[in-house]
Every structure is written in C-alpha cells, then in structure tokens.
Amino acid sequence: MTKVLVVGATGHVGREVVRKLKSGGHALRVMTRDRNKTAHLELSSDEVVEGDLRDGASLAAAVTGIERAYYATPDPEDNVAMLENFLAAAKSAGVRHVVRLSARSADLNSREDLARRHGLAEQALERSGLAWTHIRPSWFMQMMFSYAPGGRMELPGGEGRIGWIDTRDIADMAVKVLTESGHDGKCYIISGPEALSYSDLARHMSEATGRDFVYADMAPNIFRERQLALGEEAWSLDLDMQLYVNIRAGRYAAVSDEFEKVMGRPPTSFARFARECAEELVLQLD
Ligand SMILES: NC(=O)c1ccc[n+]([C@@H]2O[C@H](COP(=O)([O-])OP(=O)(O)OC[C@H]3O[C@@H](n4cnc5c(N)ncnc54)[C@H](OP(=O)(O)O)[C@@H]3O)[C@@H](O)[C@H]2O)c1
C-alpha cells in the first residue's frame, strides 16, 4: 500500500488530512518537530517521526519508505530553503510525488511577499524532478475559530470580500490527489462557493450560533500595534499587513469552480460551516 507522509500534520489543513487518511484506511506517517503536539491526532507511536525542515539531516527517518508526501508550512523568509531540504531528502529516499499546500495568490513575480514566496516554492518543487501537485486555496473558514475573541472581529479588512474555503474540503482534495493517479503536474486553484466580507461572516456566525458576532473595521496601523503587543511575530504580521491591503482593495474576491470539477461536489458554504462548527465558534466568546 502507498505510504503517505504528512509534513505540517499539526497545522490547520494537515490535521484534517491525517484524519481523512486514517478514516480511509491509508498507511501514513507524520513528521513534526515535537511528537507531543500530535497527541490529539490519535496516532500510534510508530506513525510519528520527529524532524525539522531546517535540519536536513533530521529528515531521513521521515521519508524512508514513503511514496507520496503532503507538505505545508508557514511562510517565513527561508521557506524555499526548508522545502529544498525536504526535496533533497525525499529524492534520495525515492519519494515519487509531493503535494504542496500553496496559496491562491501564488505568483513568482508578485510584489506581495507571501504570494512571491509561494511562487518561488512552487518553482523549486517543479524543478526538483519529483512529480508534483500544487493546491492553491483561498482563505480558511477555520480562521474564524480565533478571529473574534469576545464576539468582536476587529480586523483591517474593510468591506473586502474573500472566497473563504473550509479546510476539510482542502484536505478532501489533498487526500484524493495523494491516493489516486492523474494529478501529477496539476495546479488546483480552489475557493468556497461565494465571496463574503467580514460583515457577512459575522452575520452568518450570529445566525448559526444564536450569539452576537460583530465586525469592526480597524485602522491598519492600530491593528499592527495591537498584534505586536499580543506577541505576533513581526515577520508573520508584515505578511498579514500586505494581505489586508489587498483584501480591502477587493483583490481576493474571485470564486473558482475548480473544487467542484475535481471533487464532483460543491465546496462547503460558510453558512453550513458556521452551523456545523457552531460549538467551536462560540468557544471564543467566553
Ligand atoms: N490561513 C489561511 O487562510 C491560508 C489560506 C491559503 C493558504 N494558506 C497557506 O497554508 C500554509 C499553512 O498551512 P496550515 O495553516 O495548514 O499550517 P499551519 O497551521 O500554519 O501549521 C504549520 C505546520 O508547519 C509545520 N512546521 C513549521 N515549521 C516547521 C519546521 N521547521 N520543520 C517541520 N515542520 C514545520 C508545523 O509542524 P510542527 O509544529 O508540528 O513541527 C505545522 O504543522 C501557508 O503556506 C499559508 O500561506 C493559508
């Protein structure tokens, strides 16, 4: 049976990829920097391997005996170096195919750092000689589990709309790509079924939970100061600030039908996500 490695298994999408691989009966292994972080994934100890993408020598145990890998990390400045460490180890172990979580905006020539970093990483994967698939999702609905502490969503997003997508849908697509043939060399650009503003999200969350959620547009400079005071790392916040400029300008509002074409079903709407995940959404109110 194909053995799948999940890099980024403790992340938003990776944890769903792990659940779906397990429930489908697929042989898998996950790589993490700290095995204690995988406790909630209910894996056996031999399904978990410790490794750090910044330490190439630590990756051999993770890739040995693996045929296909799912790969997702955050987007620091050395994201390509981390990926290249992984690709070198994967190639020497005979891994055949890497499915990488990218972003909707990925673009080698973009002036936006996040888009350019994803574009460069996609290029590195394509040049690696391994089979590849890029999954380029829009923004994750599950970010709403932490975006509205006390029910107030204070963000500098204006009334810009986004084609929010459910991470469970992204994971469904990743598992399909990882476990069947025909996806080599493909780039799937996916979104949810509709573009919604933060005000729309607050309305849906209020309806689904029967509790009050409100959106308050925040001046970008005040938001930046608040996030730094809350301990967000400057490199990550700098990426976010560029994204909010584009959100306000409505540059992420496009909706794609590629998910339905590949998966044979429509993506989850935000209203349904909010109903299904109402219990998790209200956790941030108390
Ligand atoms: N948030 C959104 O709305 C959105 C939308 C579109 C695209 N994206 C893209 O999605 C990607 C992030 O995916 P995600 O949100 O599922 O992941 P995530 O929640 O950001 O988690 C990051 C994962 O990366 C792993 N990781 C980080 N540094 C590592 C290292 N040095 N060695 C090994 N593993 C390392 C972590 O593993 P351990 O901590 O267990 O080691 C963790 O599982 C980013 O590229 C982002 O641009 C996000």
Topology:
Layout: E1 3-7, H1 14-23, E2 27-32, E3 48-50, H2 60-63, E4 68-71, H3 79-93, E5 97-101, H4 113-126, E6 131-137, E7 152-155, H5 167-179, E8 186-190, H6 198-209, E9 214-217, H7 220-229, H8 234-248, H9 258-263, H10 270-276, H11 278-282
Parallel strand pairs: 1-2, 1-4, 2-3, 4-5, 5-6, 6-8, 7-9
The site of NADP nicotinamide-adenine-dinucleotide phosphate has 25 residues, from loops.
Radius of gyration: 19 Å
Number of helices: 11
Bound molecules: NADP nicotinamide-adenine-dinucleotide phosphate
> Helix amount, in percent?
25-40%
Account of the protein in words:
By secondary structure, the chain is α/β, with parallel strands linked by helices. It has a domain at 3-137 and 167-189 and 255-265: Rossmann fold (3-Layer(aba) Sandwich). It has eleven helices and nine strands. It has helices spanning 14-23, 60-63, 79-93, 113-126, 167-179, 198-209, 220-229, 234-248, 258-263, 270-276, 278-282; strands at 3-7, 27-32, 48-50, 68-71, 97-101, 131-137, 152-155, 186-190, 214-217. The strands form two sheets. Strands 3-2-1-4-5-6-8 form a seven-stranded parallel beta sheet, with helices on both faces. A two-stranded parallel ribbon has the order 7-9. Helix 3 links the parallel strand 4 (68-71) and strand 5 (97-101). Bound molecules: NADP nicotinamide-adenine-dinucleotide phosphate. Residues 8-14, 32-33, 37, 52-54, 72-75, 82, 101, 103, 114, 137, 139-140, 143 line the site of NADP nicotinamide-adenine-dinucleotide phosphate.
